[in-house]
Amino acid sequence: MGQCLICQNWVSEQPSLAQLLMMASIHAPVLCRSCQQRFIRIEGPTCPICGRQQTKTTVCHDCLRWQKEGSLPLVNQALYQYNGAMKQFMHQYKFLGDYRLRQAFSAEIQARIKQRAGAMIVPIPVTPKTERTRGFNQVLGLLGNLTTTAALETRHVDKAIPQSSKNRQQRLLTEQPFQLTAGADKLIRGNRIVVVDDVYTTGRTLHHAAHLLKQAGALTVTSMTLAR
Amino acid sequence: MQINDLRDLIGRQLLAADLTPELLERPEVQSRPAIKKTTSGWVCNRCGQQLTSQTRLPHQQMYCQHCIQLGRVSTLTKLYTIAENHTFRQSQTPILTWQGRLSPNQLAASNRVAANFQQTVPHLLWAVTGAGKTEMLFAGLAEAIQAGKRIGIASPRIDVILELAPRIQAAFAHSELTVLYGKSPEPYHYCQLTLCTTHQLLRFYRAFDVLVIDEVDSFPFAGNVGLHFAAEHALNASGALLYLTATPDTTLLRLAKQNRLRVTYLPLRYHGFLLPEIHRHLAFNWRKRLARGRLPQLVQRKIQQNVKHHQRFLLFLPRVTDLDPVESALNQLNLAGRFATVHAAHPNRADIVMRMRTEQLDFLVTTTILERGVTFPGIDVMVLGADDPVFSVAALVQIAGRVGRKPSRPGGQVDFFCHGMAQNVLGARRMIQQLNRRGQRMGGKAWVNA
């Protein structure tokens, strides 16, 4: 018994017989069923590069554009579609700062990352100012107590306009916002790296991060996001 | 939207994110911690509720999840305020521009309201639906405005605020008024009269000398610890608090019994006619019938009759999910009347209610959102599934009270269609009969349809 993190209604889930017999620890669901149903998992055919949900398995037009610009392909895996429910969720979690909401998807995203055994997890950082006012990094919140490597930090002291309030053109023109943290290049060299972010929108942020990590000698760089 | 004017911070308590960086730097701006530590744990200074271990942030910081929808209160921010200094523009005379007259019963209640605006003991004005509660405030409010006091009028219901605002503005035509709610299109500005939802009271701090809370027994104010705390703290130390309702809940009645609340009671409507009584009808298995695309025959006949005689009405349904089947069943009847359905989360909610008000619609199919605080002249009311537990006794009495509010048609039909016998319907009938017996003693008359 617990309250749904989003709608505050009470959730009570009957444990299954198998759960009872195996005496497995029973986790109360953190979202109620009707809230869960509003999020759409990415399943079936996706873009092989950015992991976007589509009807075919061909490279999507956004990724073709990245190719045309001569950027190396960044293979991304996303868990959910960025629909209205996810947008609202991100608003509540990031902008209102309801840190409890990290529990809604953290178990799922952690399970996915654990499938990539041996990879080094690099979270996308937030600016020091955001860290001060929001009080947390939303990506680290999703990752729970997984071991991460803080290889990246933000370059500009203050971002004039946050990425989320720019349009597509403005986003794509954004300059490299990151730099390597002190001593990070030794850790990165020769390693397989997964960069983790909350949302893949144009891919600009993740491409910048991947570029930096590859330059520093990473063996491979892939990315994972909660939504695409 | 961030505020930039010092005056907009007077008597309020806002977070750093609500103010522009320039305003935040001004020396006049005072601050106090947003969260305090007590012997029993961490407590939010804005809503007064206890924090739980669930809402811990990294680095030993805490935040409050109870009032987070109005911006997050945490140990990372403070509450910013400028003490109330009554520097608003004084109203021009004449202050009261309302020309109407009160009935002798109303006048007696109005005098008590005005007298209690000088007192710090909370006061409850318990007057039946259609008694003219708003008009009974005018004399007291006029006195308060004259005395240069700051006045707040709040309600848990946004529809109530939206209906109240033009009436208050018309009654005090030379006074400035600001209306504040979650998505209000007009920005807030500091002035003598503030109308707002009870949630917005969380953003005021020792501001009001007089605070009126209309429909005090309704959701979400009733039983909400945070909003009660907000109301107490929006009021200054010597301020007067007035509650208005037609259906006080047990909490208010208990306070009254303990002499912690003064009560003024008015069981008769201003036009002197009694409340319309509830007629019960059986609509056995109406949901099953609706699933087959048809309304109960009795309901169908009643609707057709009303449309034929141009009798406007409201049809109440218990649940939002009932609206669509009823709408499609009505569409099959090929009625000549225009109608719409509306519920709390309807995108055009305000617009549809406005169209009913301006008589562009003949009837409205709705949930409990229109149960109180709204007046459509000359309407009848039907409730399908009145025995559903979502309708409390108070809600049913309020719904019945939508009828007969105008002197030109001081009565009307109230029809409840139920699947079976239910305590809430019986309770509502009993309450109306009780009120009418008291009303009769004061000289109330029953209305007979000509």
UniProtKB/TrEMBL annotation, chain A:
Ranges of residues in domain Phosphoribosyltransferase: 169-227
Gene3D superfamilies linked to this entry: 3.40.50.2020
Protein name: ComF family protein
Entries under Pfam families matching the protein: Pribosyltran
Protein family (similarity comment): Belongs to the ComF/GntX family.
InterPro entries listed in its UniProt record: ComF/GntX_DNA_util-trans, PRTase-like, PRTase_dom
Domain of life of the source: Bacteria
Organism: Levilactobacillus bambusae
UniProtKB/TrEMBL annotation, chain B:
Pfam families found in the cross-reference section: Helicase_C, ResIII
An MF annotation (GO) of this entry: 3'-5' DNA helicase activity
Domain of life per record: Bacteria
Residue ranges of domain Helicase C-terminal in the record: 302-450
One biological process term in Gene Ontology: DNA recombination
Alphabetical list of InterPro entries matching this protein: Helicase/UvrB_N (IPR006935), Helicase_ATP-bd (IPR014001), Helicase_C-like (IPR001650), P-loop_NTPase (IPR027417)
Keywords: ATP-binding, DNA-binding, Nucleotide-binding
SMART domains recorded: DEXDc, HELICc
Domain Helicase ATP-binding: 114-266
KW DNA-binding (keyword) present: yes
Descriptive protein name: DNA/RNA helicase
Organism: Levilactobacillus bambusae
